[in-house]
C-alpha cells in the first residue's frame, strides 16, 4: 500500500471553538435553534458545513464532544487504516476572531494539550501552531512552540481579520511588526507555513459581512509583497485556492492561476489539495484527476503539490481511508510524488529533522529508536 503524509488536518473539539463562532446564514439553523436541546448541534453543523446534507454527521459530532486526547485515538486509528504515516494537525486560534466570546479551552492551554499529543505520538503527529499576529506577545508564543514544544510549522488564517502583508495599511503597526518578526524567523529557520487560501472557510465576526475584504485577505495575490520581501519562505497555499478555482487553473482570474504563477517564481511555494471534494464525487472525479495529472506533468509544479485531507472537516462523509482511496487511481509515480515526496519536501528542509525538534524529543526522553520508520529512515536525524 502507498504510504501517505497528510500535511493538512485538524484536531478540534467543541471546547476549542468559541460557541459564537457557529454563526451561519444557513436557513435550517433558525428552526433547530428554537429547540434548546439541539441548539449547539445545529450551530456546529451549520458552521462547519453550511447548507449541506451529510451521512456521517452524527459520528463527527460524537468525535467533537470528546476530550482532545480521546479524539486523537480514533484519528490515529484512521491514519493507520489509510497508511498515513505522518500527519501535521493545524491549530486554530479563534480567540481574536472578534466575537467577544472565547473558546472554553483558552488558546494557550490548547497549545499545551496539543504539545502533549506530539509527545505521545513522536514523529507521527507533528502539529503546526497557529499564528494570529493580533495576539499579544505572539512572536514569543510562536518561537516557544516551535523551539520547545514540538511544533513543526506555522498555520495562518488571514480572513479571520488581518492582511498577510506586513506593509498593508489595513493592519495596525503592532500587527505588521509581528508579521515581519515571524516571517523573518521562519525564513531563517526554514519553518513551513500553511495559509488558508480559498473562498470558503471560517471568517472573522468583523469581516463576516464583507465578502470583498474576506476574499482580498485570502487571495494568493495578497502574498506577493510577503514573498518579495521574504523570497526564501516555505509557504503552502491550503486548498490550492479552493475546488472550483483548482479545476479552472487555466483561467487567468482563478486563484489557482495566481498560485501557479507564484510557484514558478519562488522555490518555496506549495499548494495542498485538502478538502478537494470533486476528487471524491463520482460525477466530478474524472475531471478532477485529469486536472491534477495535467499539473503533475508540469515542471516545477509537480514537486509542489503535497497531499492533505482536512480531517476533521471532511469526516462528515469520508474517513481517512475513504479519502486516500480516491487518490489510488493516480499513476504510481505521480501518487508517490503527491502522497509522500512533496509533503516531505514541504515539511522538512533538505529532508532533515530540525535540530529544534530533536532537542524537544531529547527533553522528553524520546530516543531515536522510539521514532517511526519514516523519520529514522527517510530523514537525516
Ligand atoms: Zn483546514
CATH architecture: Alpha-Beta Barrel
User: Which radius of gyration do the C-alpha atoms yield?
Assistant: 20 Å
Largest sheet: 5 strands, parallel
Average of pLDDT: 89
Output the CATH topology.
TIM Barrel
CATH superfamily: Metal-dependent hydrolases
Question: Can you describe this structure?
Answer:
This protein has 381 residues and is an alpha/beta fold. Helices cover 43% and strands 10% of the residues. It has a single domain, classed as Alpha-Beta Barrel (TIM Barrel), CATH 3.20.20. It has 16 helices and seven strands. A five-stranded parallel sheet has the order 3-4-5-6-7. The chain has a two-stranded parallel ribbon with strand order 1-2. The protein starts with a strand and ends with a helix. The site of zinc ion (ZN) has 4 residues, from loops. Zinc ion (ZN) binds next to loops.
